[in-house]
Write a structure and sequence with these properties.
This protein has 380 residues and is of the alpha/beta class. The chain is built from 13 helices and 14 strands. The chain binds pyridoxal-5'-phosphate. The site of pyridoxal-5'-phosphate (PLP) has 14 residues, from helix 3 and helix 4.
Length: 380
Amino acid sequence: MIPYGRQQISEEDIAAVEAVLRSDWLTQGPAVPAFEVALSERTGATHAVAVSSATAALHLACLVAGVGEGDRVWTSPNTFVASANCARYCGACVDFIDIDPDTLNIDIGLLARRLAVAAQSDALPKVVIPVAFAGRSADMQALHSLARQYGFVVIEDASHAVGASYLGQPVASGEYADMTVFSFHPVKIITTAEGGAVLTNRREWADQLQRLRSHGITRDPVLMHSASEGDWYYQMLELGFNYRMTDLQAALGLSQLQRLDVFLERRRQLACRYAAQLAELPLILPSPSEESAWHLYVVQLVDASRRKAIFNELRARGIGVNVHYIPVHLQPYYQAQGFTRGYCPVAEAYYQRAITLPLHAGMTDAQQDEVVSVLKELLQ
Ligand SMILES: *Cc1c(COP(=O)(O)O)cnc(C)c1O
């Protein structure tokens, strides 16, 4: 089976993890801060806080943005469930803003209209979470000006977009988002097995993120509510979690980061090859992008009624296709909160047509040619 996504592990990666295994620290050692510095340098964000997953990163980002019981968080329905669940962990209500059919990202025109209505009834969101679907940022510039106008915090879910850029700046530079979340799951651009990070330019948020990932505990006497009682002493200032990344994971991440540009270049090449080779088929192809990280290559069948049959046939022929995403508001959990079919018609129609083709940094031209030739056979 040619998988839709797969990690690339080198001998250097293995050596980096092995070195940690032979060192004094498996967790809370020097590798995590080194990885965080490298993420900051790469993106231009002043602070990077590495955690155990992007899901944990989204949860903590919502908490430091002040999301709590009764607040509202808005996101895109065309995403993994974690982009919405983070708000629920904080007791907030989630709402979904339908997508733009061209970019498959949150529809900024619709968002502007929904915000104008919400402002009238005092029902504005505290946080909006745009998702950089497939590796390409939403219209963050327009989103940023709406955030200024209506006073919400922007947390970009850039789980797909590690190494991507937007208007010439690295994603996570903080130009348009208050916080940016990365995922390092093995199918993503670089991996730490499980892992994620929050990037921000706000010092006080970074400090709070660091505390919250480790039980809400501080050893800084300045922050303590009473004098330190000795060198063993710490205080728990707020209810935190164990969301720490281990040094094993961070060493892998740091080693992977050295090859990020190689991975991105190969992904872009493969995306260009698909675009050229699939142009004549009855498919809607992703619009070209120089700035996307090309995490996913999603094609849409012009004839949605054939999606399931074509998907099954591709799988039967060893092509590991997938579907991204089942609209989140159609999940039973969110249906139970009152969202019904038809709530986000663009995302729902897109979902009916979508097939994610294999694309990852280790994929060969021959594998891609095989995907293309099977698709041609099925569609011509
Ligand atoms: C993968 C993914 C997540 C969750 O990432 P984990 O690191 O597995 O927790 C969140 N949002 C999006 C858009 C993702 O693709």
